[in-house]
Design goal:
This protein has 150 residues and is α+β, with helices and mostly antiparallel strands. Helices cover 32% and strands 19% of the residues. Strands 2-1-3-4 form a 4-stranded antiparallel beta sheet, with helices on one face. The longest helix has 13 residues. It is globular.
Length: 150
Amino acid sequence: MIDIINIHKSYGSLEVLKGINAHIGKGEIVSIVGPSGAGKTTLLQIIGTLDKPDSGEIHIGEVQIGKLKKKELSVFRNNHIGFVFQFYNLIPNLTVRENIEVGAYLSDHALDVDELLDTLGLADHQRKLPNQLSGGQQQRTAIGRAIVKN
């Protein structure tokens, strides 16, 4: 599903990623662990197509990400990648439901929002704004927004 081949990334003279290789199979759950500054976020940003490596390749399915033009990359990201950011990035003036629906608008095959709200335990909170939620509820809303794209 995802192949990471000899990825290198530097910021000035600071080499952050030094020849990273990995294979992640479909349905496999992977944790990336390491000390602060080890390059975990940089690697995730490259895998998620938000950043480019200095060298090396990322394959997602049959697609070699580095060969996509900017517009193709944007379409690929919208159709195949969902993000849950460390700071949830919920839209403060939208309800839980509306924040999740934002993700649904990006997909031709979105999951059912009502079903997703039930699954995430957010049905009773769907009319609340982010500042009315606990941290866990905000995180589940962000997860809902990421996975509603199916």
